């Protein structure tokens, strides 16, 4: 597998976990931040192949962009890239956000915002499990599953490759763009079990077959 240049916008719990897994796998990580002297996840700079840039430069340097911020931040992030259409052309955007409580109006999710306002290939992925499971996706020797939805086959191929590189057992295709909101509801199902029903954050989904 060829190493990819990956921009990480949002280096908190989720972006930090995936940046760490992917840098360990040999990918180049271009962190895109508002303030290079002060941002959550600055210790990621101790990881291999990892540097911090402005959001615009991180995206310019990368073929893949992970968005792992609060959903409403997308209205600031896209203008920070410069001209959205040319800045995002030929790039794959992976939306790991959950907009169930705060959607970027008038769009239902960040996926829909990106599809409407960029030329990127967009996929929703890495939103359905806790960040602890992204840091360590292996339970009793078995990789847990992650899920993806969207209309771009190219973006789905990249998301699946990166899911396997991060150590997930599989990246299950949840369907096209009309299933993106359902995938966010699926994230709520994990949150419900982990937090409201008290099972704790060390739980995960795996698709079983027979
Ligand atoms: N936590 C989980 O287990 C989990 C699991 C699945 C999906 N998610 C989803 O993933 C997203 C991130 O969650 P998280 O827990 O990783 O969040 P977090 O730890 O609070 O990190 C948020 C990150 O977003 C950045 N950010 C905030 N506003 C920004 C803006 N206007 N422009 C650029 N960057 C901005 C912050 O940068 P600064 O350091 O500069 O403030 C920080 O790096 C959310 O949409 C959440 O619903 C979370």
Low-pLDDT ranges: none
CATH class: Alpha Beta
Order of strands, main sheet, comes to 3-2-1-4-5-6-9-10
Tally of domains: 1
Tell me the span between the first and last alpha carbons.
30 Å
Q: What is the gyration radius calculated from CA atoms?
A: 16 Å
Q: Which CATH-level-2 architecture?
A: 3-Layer(aba) Sandwich
What is the global morphology?
Answer: globular
The CATH homologous superfamily is called NAD(P)-binding Rossmann-like Domain
Please, could you describe this protein's structure?
- This protein has 210 residues and is of the alpha/beta class.
- The protein has a single domain (5-196), classed as NAD(P)-binding Rossmann-like Domain (Rossmann fold, 3-Layer(aba) Sandwich), CATH 3.40.50.720.
- 35% of the residues lie in helices and 21% in strands.
- It contains eight helices and ten strands.
- A hairpin with a 2-residue loop joins strand 7 (138-139) and strand 8.
- The protein is globular.
- Bound molecules: NADP nicotinamide-adenine-dinucleotide phosphate (NAP).
- NADP nicotinamide-adenine-dinucleotide phosphate (NAP) binds next to helix 1 and helix 3.
